[in-house]
């Protein structure tokens, strides 16, 4: 019988893989699509806002990894994490205050594969910036493999992250 090999997180982290653009989802390796200029520009704009707004209140991780043990390694576009020392390990879901994905060609992958993993891991809140439809999809309140609350916002509208209800952010475009 032929079966695919499923990697553990530890095995995956030992593989000689490219520095960026590879994720491990439930033991399976996925190569990410190259980042386009619109995607990169929006990540830069989100990063500027998050760094300016949350300096000293939360850690901003730009296209850096975090893990959902035992078999998931993700590289979201942006993470807002608790202020902790991550030199010896990656953040885990209960330290993530907000995950942001910017999606153009990756929308189906982000919504169909990654958002359910964020929910299963217990990530409090995920925002997916949908470049194809010009909207921000908001997922809150993880329950199993989905989120109890789902919203969508248009560019220019404001929404505060659950972890910082007193700090509304404007949806960039």
From TrEMBL:
Chain ranges of the Putative restriction endonuclease domain: 9-169
Lineage top rank: taxon: Bacteria
Database matches in InterPro entries: Nuclease_put_TT1808, Restrct_endonuc-II-like, Uma2
A Pfam family recorded for this sequence: Uma2
Full protein name: Putative restriction endonuclease domain-containing protein
């Amino acid at each position: 019988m032929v079966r695919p090999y499923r990697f553990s997180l530890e095995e995956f982290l030992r593989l000689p893989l490219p520095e960026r653009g590879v994720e491990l989802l439930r033991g399976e390796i996925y190569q990410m699509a190259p980042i386009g200029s619109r995607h990169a520009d929006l990540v830069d704009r989100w990063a500027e806002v998050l760094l300016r707004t949350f300096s000293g209140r939360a850690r901003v991780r730009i296209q850096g990894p975090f893990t959902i043990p035992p078999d998931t390694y993700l590289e979201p576009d942006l993470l807002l994490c608790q202020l902790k020392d991550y030199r010896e390990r990656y953040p885990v879901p209960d330290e993530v205050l907000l995950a942001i994905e910017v999606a153009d060609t990756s929308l189906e992958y982000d919504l169909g594969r990654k958002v359910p993993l964020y929910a299963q891991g217990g990530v409090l809140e995920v925002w997916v910036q949908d470049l194809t439809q010009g909207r921000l999809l908001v997922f809150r309140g993880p329950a199993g493999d989905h989120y109890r609350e789902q919203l969508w916002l248009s560019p220019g509208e404001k929404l505060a992250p659950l972890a910082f209800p007193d700090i509304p952010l404007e949806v960039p475009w």
